[in-house]
Design brief:
about 210 residues, mainly alpha, DNA-binding, Arc Repressor Mutant, subunit A, homodimer, 2 domains, 10 helices, Tetracycline Repressor, domain 2
Chain lengths: ~210, ~210
DNA sequence: GTCTATAAGAAGATAGAC
DNA sequence: GTCTATCTTCTTATAGAC
């Protein structure tokens, strides 16, 4: 119905599978169910479609990020949850979040598109690192800092803790993006990583 | 002089910067210093050049991998080195290896090219995961298994240890690929990660 | 093996009818 | 807003002289 929006959706799907240069305007049009020239009534060029996707995803990301710091769902609150839950429920949370990032259509497609296009200009490179690494590390650092200060975890370098917690998860995610058939195997590794991380950084006297 | 070889070099450079589809045969020819039609005396098509790069890099990788298991430079020998060295020299080794992977022309270009092209076919996806993740994890798992058995490290899951050691390093490497200007900052994190990992898994009584 | 000229076709975008 | 027809440009690849 909303053709303008449907164009973005189909274009994102195609860009995430083949990359910008390998998707032709006619492909996008066909996926939407119209002819290529009709598409130019909605967007003035192919690049314009790409930019619109980028803007939409940036807005949606910023909205999410803002919510994390406004609704009480911030690092401090998460730290409270973290400190209260068992290792099992930590695993459950981690695996749930992992599955969401892996299977949510927009999230996965945008991640794959940025992966393909990350070297095509510096702006995309920055966006990639910000959304998938730096912001996560910042957030988790804050959380680990609180947990360490409270004496619940025993590390003295929250930034490195965040790096060591986040990077295995991200690596497993990108492996699933490449080879979806390995999801079960890699999810098992994710679970073991979380358990091991939890053991490593939990104060002995609290185990 | 060896035009055939120079074509592969220049093509790899261009593919790693712009991706296969954004590089034109004329671009490669110009980089080599000839005209596009001359190039067809050496390779029968653009795709043929890509495949030749792939084959060459696969061969060189397999050669390297084979050496690791034949010349005594295997996981067992590395474990001996690992167990004998101080934390400082471990950091030095790690940072040295990191800098090599980051700056070695072929290594970096091929990694970037595969990153861009990884979703274009399942064979490339498999190659990517094998070369940058699975093989490293296998190798490091074997090494950590030995070190744990010898009582030098205290973990009980070498595979997860390898995941936790390798994935931060790989993540920092890809960050440098995207934003080379951050190399110093990220190398500092690498050092802290290695020190922290070493402390976490070293038996207390040996510190 | 390198060149110039050119074929053959693909792809982005526009014109103008409906 | 969608279509058919078409323009223009770009890109791969070949032909054939040197």
């Amino acid at each position: 119905m909303d053709t303008k929006k449907r164009i973005l959706d189909e274009a994102l799907t195609l860009f995430s599978e083949k990359g910008y240069a390998n998707v032709f305007v006619a492909d996008i049009a066909e996926a939407v169910g119209i002819k290529a020239p009709s598409l130019y009534k909605h967007y003035k060029s192919k690049r314009d479609i790409f930019n619109a996707i980028l803007n939409e995803m940036k807005l949606s990301y910023d909205k999410q990020a803002a919510m994390l710091n406004m609704n009480g769902n911030d690092a401090s609150a998460d730290a409270k949850v973290f400190s209260a839950v068992s290792e099992d429920s930590l695993v459950e949370m981690g695996v749930g979040l992992f599955r969401f990032f892996l299977h949510d259509g927009y999230t996965q497609k945008f991640r794959k598109m940025l992966t393909i296009e990350q070297f095509s200009n510096p702006e995309l490179a920055e966006l990639f690192t910000k959304q998938y690494i730096d912001d996560s590390l910042k957030y988790q650092s804050a959380m680990f800092a609180i947990l360490c200060k409270q004496g619940i975890l025993k590390g003295d370098n929250p930034q490195i803790m965040a790096l060591q917690f986040h990077s295995p998860i991200y690596m497993l995610l990108t492996m699933c993006d490449r080879e979806p058939q390995r999801e079960a195997e890699l999810t098992a590794l994710l679970e073991q990583h979380i358990r091991q991380f939890s053991k490593l950084y939990t104060k002995e006297e609290q185990q």
